[in-house]
Amino acid sequence: MTRLRFAFAATALVAALGAAGAQAQSRAQDATGAAAQDWPPTYTMYGTPGLIELPSAISAPDGQIGLTLGGYALDQFSTFTFQITPRLSGSFRYSRMDDFAGRDTITNFDRSFDMQFRLLDEGTWRPAVAVGLRDFIGTGLFTSEYVVATKNLTDRLRVTGGIGWGRLGTYNGFDNPLGALSDKFDTRPERDFGVGGEVEFGQFFRGDAALFGGVEYRMTDALTLTAEYSSDDYARERRRGTFDSATPVNLGLTYMPRPGYQLSAYALHGTEIGANVTFTIDPKSRPAPSGLESAPIPVAVRAQGTAAARTWDRAILPEATLRTALAQALATEGITLDAMDLRDRSIRLRYTNTRYRAQAQAMGRIARILTQALPPSIETFVLEPMARGIPLSATTLMRSDIEALENAPDAAWTSFTRAQFADAGSQDGLVDVPDPAPAFQWGIAPFTELALFDGDGPVRADFGIEASARYRIRPNLVLEGALRQRLYGDREDGAVAPSTLPTVRRTNAQFGATDRIGVDYLTLTHYGRPAADLYSRVSVGYLERMYGGISTELLWKPVDSRLALGAEVNFVSQRDVDLGFGFQDDPALTNILTGHVSGYYDFQNGFQAQVDVGRYLAGDYGATFALDRTFDNGWKVGAYFTLTDVPFDDFGEGSFDKGIRLSIPTDWILGQPTRDTTDVSLSSLTRDGGARLDLDGRLYDVVRDGHVPELADGWGRFWR
Hints:
CATH topology of the largest domain: Porin
Helix content: 10-25%
Structural class: mainly beta
CATH class of the largest domain: Mainly Beta
Number of domains: 3
Strand content: 35-45%
Oligomer: single chain
Distance between the termini: 65 Å
């Protein structure tokens, strides 16, 4: 087909969408109205919002996470999709392809990433328009680019049309219309993926293009019928004799009985049957019903005139008695009272919040208790949260504000504007309160450790028993460790790819893969405040499963600043594989000096960026870039990548380190307050280039939730 014929086809497609939109106006007030918006997107076989195989311009709700298992007889896909912003989505896919080289041959496993950006919102006459990249990092087996438009004609009928390149430009393709801009667009270069993992910018939107489209009809609120015309002719599969396409038309039926999951079945190209199941999670909401956590005690309002008292009778209510009573009352809320400075008109508390994920919620609970327990003369509350034994900040609240605002409209915002924030004060005047919790604590629990998305298999796992112990020498000086006994596992069976780099991470699955008890970690850690706005950490011992030595860190982080700067220096050696007390003999794995300077920035819209520049475990130099989105209820979703001076070929499969990370707050699941989280990392591969120490308790993560940007984000929970 010539460019002229393409222009005619594209014009006809847009005209058809516009005409259909005009007709829809007589049946619906606005295609972007409530009915259309209540129609959630369906997820494709590839795990992205769309039709069956093809994308659409419909975006998932902001922040939604989709987990999809789909495919057909020979190809299966596991996909994680995140709606990063209202317009931008990203996906990580792990694919299994049977008979990859032809009938009855090998099985291949592949990792890929997608991105889609919605350029235009749907309007009264205008369709939503999006541009996307499919499998733009990796081996390129499904690589394609597209521009797609979608229009809701009624609250039951939705149409999609688009143009695709790459794999989506292989059925009934035509000359690239972008060739009118430059003849560079006429030909699509062959993809030389090498070890994979690279972005082939030179292929984007080049070569032949093809049209695709489809229709979705919502028969009921739970059932959607889909028909699509696919521009993917499965050229690679047909050449290898593993796929036969009789028609470009696919048919599908999606069952969505309630929000949170959907089931789909497909008839693909007249020759195959496919299916998928998608689970969706909205991090902005919570599955547990409200009201599971205990209600806070009411604010005690002082009798008229008593607030003017200048002091109280210490003979009737001694300070020691008051300290004991406050410590006991706070303990019922999971708050440890560490120190207190009690005066005639003010009180300053240092405390450790062990229960509430948001420090602001702990502050609200403390303020309520203080109104109940303190003499009427005390008007000023200064609350200083602590973490790892170091004070983080000082929040000053006026008791009269607490009394006046408990039931006031917009109480959260008003109380935040009246609060005063500063760095924590000095030790002067503070009286330490003995911690009733034992200094030595221990526990035994089962453990499960997964290795996901290995190049030779999707899941490997170890199971066993872990005994952990912790001895608090001082609040900021802690000795802790864990012993592990593996009972069953196969993580070590994964392939170890060859590399010219020192083996600093590739063999991680072999550590602890024995029948004997091993020391998972054993560290002595000290946290400090060497100066205003400065925090320090020194850790000594078996720092993690693979390395032991010393790790030091310094962080500059003013209380009200969105910017933080840090530096970390480590001197370590690789441990023995059996997790005993010995170290490796290889000179390349001993006496390793590694370190980074780091910058952190909180954009105060839920996004935090981090850049680490320095020397990695394999002796390579480079930088790690990370972007995380944190939701008010504690969910965190992020992505990272590392580029160093290691050539991609030397790095090995994947070319460079990259991945997706999740942090799921336990209180989101249970509905009960707790600071526990479950952390998951979806990384493409574990390699030696760009490898860092796996340390717990780095300073920025310890400090940030007690500072103003994080307090502001969580202040909506102050009165809860």
